[in-house]
Amino acid sequence: MRSNSLALFVAASVYHLSGVGAAQLKQKPLAEYISYSSVPGYFVQDNNSTNASTFDFVRPHSVKTFLHYQSRVATNFGLINQTYPTDGQFDPKGEKSQWERFANQVFRLNLESPSNIIYKLLFIGRHGEGFHNAAESYFGTPAWNLDGNSTAYWADAHLTANGIDQAQTVNDLWRTLIDSQNITTPQSYYVSPLTRCLQTANVSFNGLPLPAEHPFVPEVKELLREGIDIHTCDSRSNLTYIKANFPGYTIEPGFTEYDLLFRQSTSETTTAQNLRSKTLLDDIFSTDGETYLSFTTHSGEAGSLLSVLGHRSFSLSTGAVIPVLVKAETLSGSPPTTTVLPYTSQVVCNQPPVTSLATGGCVCSSGSTIPTGEAKRR
Ligand SMILES: *[C@@H]1O[C@H](CO)[C@@H](O)[C@H](O)[C@H]1NC(C)=O
Ligand SMILES: *[C@@H]1O[C@H](CO)[C@@H](O)[C@H](O)[C@H]1NC(C)=O
Ligand SMILES: *[C@@H]1O[C@H](CO)[C@@H](O)[C@H](O)[C@H]1NC(C)=O
Ligand SMILES: *[C@@H]1O[C@H](CO)[C@@H](O)[C@H](O)[C@H]1NC(C)=O
Ligand SMILES: *[C@@H]1O[C@H](CO)[C@@H](O)[C@H](O)[C@H]1NC(C)=O
Ligand SMILES: *[C@@H]1O[C@H](CO)[C@@H](O)[C@H](O)[C@H]1NC(C)=O
Ligand SMILES: *[C@@H]1O[C@H](CO)[C@@H](O)[C@H](O)[C@H]1NC(C)=O
Ligand SMILES: *[C@@H]1O[C@H](CO)[C@@H](O)[C@H](O)[C@H]1NC(C)=O
Question: Hey, what's the torsion of the CAs at 108, 109, 113, 118, to 10 degrees?
């Protein structure tokens, strides 16, 4: 299926990893570009009437009872129980599972679409709970902008025991759906370079009966990381560390030893993050011919990807995974221009803050006050 990629010869947007500020956010006029949309009607979470804060792709925190097992099958990553126009020919006796019939439907969508249109199913997952999430609850945002305190460390945060359980829940769900519905598992895996995602992907897919032609060999993608800002939990470890601790993973070409994007005192704007997400998607859609892709990423970055994909805003709880059926269309001409705002400067405490404020801000030990926090959750 490697041929099933868009023939995109020019990247639709250019995101330089070196250089500072606005200079790194150039968009070039192009001969063609990819336009993304999410296809509604297949998953409950793309329906506006589904409440994201109560949506349960698989009850993440409950104990493993028989009933729990049943509810996992029922929630089914949000796949709606329904018949498709392609069912009649594929499943005349009504014996195939919902996921098998869905896979046939996607296969037919690709078969019957013009050559400039492809459909892919993206499983977008957020990492399980990390130590930085626990610290954010404790200190408030952004007062936890330190590497840690005397009892916990969260620069490039690792998963807590709860976070590992959440990833194991995803693993259990995959196993259940492989066994009960012959679900098509991801054919390519992409993972953020931050440790909590590298760990989450490992636990989520460890030991599953995956097809030999599509083993779990994720590629580490720099641009799949969390929003780049002042929080050290969002700075990554060096390449030597990643290779040593995740030896089965592949590293994308050009990945640098050290983190060149994290700068402590500047934050990526939403528009800059969306340009980064679009650049990542263009890279993957124009080079990867597979149809089922897994992304292990962060809440802010998942939100940015959903926005670029034209999916409704949908906030993922720690450890949650949602599938998104994406239609990608290569169009000629230049894309509609968008305004990309440069990174902004941020005030940071250089020492552990003395106290957090109810507004989300904090008081630094130097005496200066950061009045409000960013309302971002990682
Ligand atoms: C969204 O969900 C509502 C309530 O279940 C349903 O009436 C509606 O048809 C759905 N819309 C789409 C586009 O599936
Ligand atoms: C879903 O809600 C968003 C935001 O309220 C709105 O812009 C969009 O048109 C809605 N989509 C549908 C299919 O109703
Ligand atoms: C979604 O659910 C949350 C939690 O139950 C509730 O507070 C919120 O009002 C709901 N939102 C909508 C739009 O119904
Ligand atoms: C979907 O179908 C399955 C199998 O027929 C059934 O067990 C499950 O309860 C259904 N789920 C919903 C939400 O209707
Ligand atoms: C360090 O921060 C954690 C929050 O992650 C908190 O539970 C712990 O009590 C803090 N330790 C000290 C000594 O303040
Ligand atoms: C599972 O689905 C694949 C197609 O995705 C098919 O080739 C295979 O025969 C199915 N396996 C079983 C046991 O039905
Ligand atoms: C996950 O990590 C463990 C411990 O490093 C390792 O033994 C295992 O092979 C890894 N699994 C995958 C699927 O990467
Ligand atoms: C990489 O980071 C680790 C700590 O995570 C450190 O021990 C090691 O010296 C670093 N390696 C290089 C080449 O900087």
Answer: -120
- The reported pTM is 0.83
Number of domains in the chain: 1
Task: Report which of 258, 197, 251 is spatially closest to residue 220, judged by C-alpha positions.
Answer: 251
C-alpha closest to that of 205 among 168, 178, 180: 168
Task: Determine the residue of 141, 147, 151, 159 to mutate for testing ligand 5's pocket, defined as the one with the most ligand atoms within 8 A of the Cβ atom.
Answer: 151
Q: Residue 246 falls within a domain, yes or no?
A: yes
Structural domain contains residue 75: yes
> Does residue 136 fall inside a structural domain?
yes
Report the relative pairing of strands 292-297 and 117-126 from DSSP bridges.
parallel
Cα angle vertex 256, ends 121, 288, to 5°?
Answer: 25
CA of 221 to the centre of ligand 8 (A): 19
Q: Name the residues annotated as catalytic.
A: 127, 226
> Residues 103-130: pLDDT tens digits?
999 999 999 999 999 999 999 999 887 7
Residue 48 belongs to what domain range? 21-351
Distance 123 CA to ligand 3 centre (A): 24
176 assigned to some structural domain:
yes
Query: What CATH code is carried by the domain that includes residue 330?
Result: 3.40.50.1240
